[in-house]
Design brief:
Layout: E1 2-4, H1 10-17, E2 29-38, E3 44-54, E4 57-66, E5 74-84, E6 87-97, H2 98-102, H3 110-119, E7 136-142, E8 156-165, E9 168-179
Length: 185
């Protein structure tokens, strides 16, 4: 489901007012689809994320809420790109400790540093573990497309994020899209 925000909508005005380094006209990725899946309903209360169109760019909007305190969280991020017809290659394949990520201890990893920069714009981001039960993370018009370097080739892509606690899979998030040529003048 995609929602389009228009001038006059409170969230549109809020996002429009604090435009900082985002250049909406030059987004290098067009997101085309998204799915989320809770794999343990005993631990995850809500995972409700949608694609919202804002200034011609699809962004992530939604909430995540755990039922219990989370003392240990790990994430696995994979991005596959299609360079030729039916030829997919793994572009990114990494696992990391979410608690260290939230605490800013992954600063040597450029990809994670870029992702953290996007998440820090959320007022609900808790930057330490344990994450308390019932804490609501809010993704408010998160633009993940600016994390993709615009000098890389045009490709179709599939991104998968799996989140675990002590090797137990909690939830999964999938994004599909494609990159597009960006000409800066």
């Amino acid at each position: 489901m995609t929602i389009t925000l228009k001038p006059g909508d409170e969230r549109y005005e809020d996002e429009h007012d604090d435009v900082d380094d985002d250049d909406f006209s030059n987004s290098p990725i067009a997101l085309t689809g998204m799915t989320t899946n809770i794999l343990d309903h005993k631990l995850i209360e809500r995972l409700d994320v949608t694609l919202v169109e804002h200034n011609g760019i699809k962004k992530l909007n939604g909430t995540l809420k755990h039922r219990v305190d989370m003392h240990a969280l790990e994430a696995e991020v994979q991005v596959q790109i299609q360079q030729f017809r039916n030829k997919w290659s793994r572009f990114i394949d990494m696992k990391f400790d979410v608690c260290k990520f939230l605490d800013g201890k992954c600063k040597n990893n450029q990809v994670l540093r870029s992702i953290l920069k996007r998440f820090l714009k959320s007022r609900s981001l808790r930057q330490k573990c344990p994450v308390p039960a019932r804490h609501v993370y809010v993704l408010d018009l998160l633009d993940v497309s600016t994390s993709y370097p615009d000098y890389l080739p045009n490709v179709a892509l599939i991104a998968t994020v799996n989140v675990y606690t002590k090797a137990h899979l909690l939830w999964q998030f999938n994004l599909t899209g494609f990159t597009k040529a960006v000409i800066k003048m």
